[in-house]
Specification:
448 residues, binds magnesium ion, 7-stranded mixed beta sheet, Rossmann fold, binds guanosine-5'-triphosphate, Gyrase A, domain 2, Four Helix Bundle (Hemerythrin (Met), subunit A), 15 helices, alpha/beta, 13 strands, 6-stranded mixed beta sheet
């Protein structure tokens, strides 16, 4: 068992309960040296007791639960003590257990140990952090599925067929003189094609997966007074941004997140873009232009009740090659402008003031972003998974291209197949390095 670690697993603030966790060698002895219970501690029983400091003075009372290896979260001996949620008490508890031989846990170290001890694969470990940070109900559901091993169950068979292929190729090398059954060229191609198809199925979920985790970035742009802030408020369903009939009302961008069918969308209301004389507004316009650069989808807003101006067209020129929705606002006052100018783009007519067309706009935002949330809800891969899946696909496609037309020796073929299998193995953590683990677990909170 690894060295004993300790951490507070709950946020440091005033709360009914604060939990201290210990995991590793000897933790029961260390814990009970300072946390005194009446009788002997039995695994999986709740024991009432008193926490003492180094001088034997009582600090607090609480409940201790002992999880005996391997039946614990980390797979090691673990102790969890629930105390009163006061930062002083919890810090004191940390101090005494550290004096007893524990080391303060690194971020994610409990989960890292769970992974290293074979309690979960790497996608499940990642899902723990995602479940904790999920910002919408959909993100939570997706994380929970992954935590339950769903993604691993998709990746593993793909990797296994590649490894099986390797085994055949290996047999080819070793027994090439003998008459043993090997795969025909067509069978090899068929196996690799099936794996590529499986990889592609997963890759198709990547875009939505990224948006569910990180949100869609949406910028609302247009010249002053066309109703950007009104639209922002309508999408938020809250009077967040100031709206007036004075041009240049919004001087700095404002950012808020809404959930559209469970997908977090970060809305940015920008300063109306124009050649501003006011230095403050000028900075606002510059910052708004930066936000426009980062956006996944742009809402280009025009006032439909008045003729278009050069200012509108200058902004349109700037954004017309982006992922764009033209929003014709103020349609409650009638639509005067010619819409043909914007041909080729989605055009949605709304009235931000009256709340008309907003739902249609929301649908179009998701469509433009390329978010497809399937009914029945499947798995969605993350950016890390996507990168590795792409690498695997690339290696396999390159291999097939050559294999179809050339006689490739089984030794060379094996190199490619194994490389692809390793990329898939890295997703679930069957192939890994300290660096990979470090970059994943450093993003966790302490105590998890
Ligand atoms: N009739 C009507 N008026 C609207 C509508 N949307 C906005 N307005 C009005 O248009 C004016 C400007 O609205 P804002 O939302 O402040 O416009 P903006 O684009 O954010 O303006 P800046 O921040 O100055 O760039 C306000 O008087 C709004 O009430 C609409 O759909 N119909
Ligand atoms: Mg505004």
């Amino acid at each position: 068992m690894r060295e004993p670690i300790v951490a507070v697993a709950t946020p440091l603030g005033e709360s009914a309960i604060g939990v201290v966790r210990l995991s590793g060698r000897d933790v029961l002895r260390i814990a009970t040296k300072f946390f005194r219970t009446k009788g002997p501690v039995k695994p999986r029983f709740a024991h009432y007791g008193t926490l003492l400091d180094e001088n034997g003075e009582p600090v607090d009372e609480g409940i201790l639960v002992y999880y005996k290896a391997p039946r614990s979260y980390t797979g090691e001996d673990m102790v969890e003590i629930s105390l009163h949620g006061n930062p002083f008490i919890l810090k004191k508890a940390l101090e005494v257990f550290i004096s007893g031989g524990c080391r303060l846990a690194e971020p994610g170290e409990f989960t890292k140990r769970a992974f290293l001890n074979g309690k979960m694969d790497l996608t499940q470990a990642e899902a723990v952090a995602e479940l904790i940070s999920a910002k919408t109900d959909l993100a939570r559901k997706v994380a929970l599925r992954q935590l339950r091993g769903e993604l691993g169950r998709h990746i593993r068979p793909l990797r296994e067929s590649l490894l099986e292929l390797c085994a055949y190729l290996e047999a080819d090398i070793e027994f090439s003189e003998e008459d043993i059954p090997t795969l025909t060229k067509d069978q090899v191609i068929d196996m690799v094609e099936k794996v590529i198809a499986g990889v592609e199925d997963l890759l198709r979920t990547a875009r939505t997966g990224r948006f569910i985790r990180e949100g869609v970035k949406l910028a609302i742009v247009g010249k002053p007074n066309v109703g950007k802030s009104s639209l922002f408020n309508a999408l938020l369903r809250e009077d967040r941004a100031i709206v007036t009939d004075i041009e240049g009302t919004t001087r700095d961008y404002i950012e808020e997140t809404v959930s559209l069918r469970g997908v977090p969308v970060s809305l940015v209301d920008t300063a109306g873009i124009r050649e501003a004389k006011d230095p403050v507004e000028r900075i606002g316009v510059r910052r708004s232009l930066e936000k426009i650069e980062e956006a996944d989808v742009i809402l280009f807003v025009v006032d439909g009740s008045r003729p278009l101006t050069e200012e509108d067209m200058r902004i349109y020129d700037r954004v017309k090659n982006r992922n764009l929705i033209v929003v014709v606002n103020k349609t409650d006052l009638g639509t005067l402008i010619p819409l043909e100018i914007f041909e080729g783009h989605s055009i949605i007519k709304v009235s931000a003031l009256k709340g008309l067309g907003i739902q249609e706009l929301e649908e179009e935002i998701l469509r433009k972003a390329g978010v497809f949330v399937e009914e029945g809800l499947n798995i969605y891969v993350s950016v890390r998974h996507e990168e590795l899946l792409r690498k695997a696909r690339e290696v396999l496609e390159r291999f097939l291209e050559r294999y179809r037309v050339e006689d490739i020796s089984p030794e060379i073929a094996m190199l490619d197949i194994r490389e692809a299998a390793d990329h898939l193995g890295e997703i679930i953590g069957e192939v890994t390095t300290e660096d990979i683990l470090g970059s994943i677990f450093s993003r966790f909170c302490i105590g998890k």
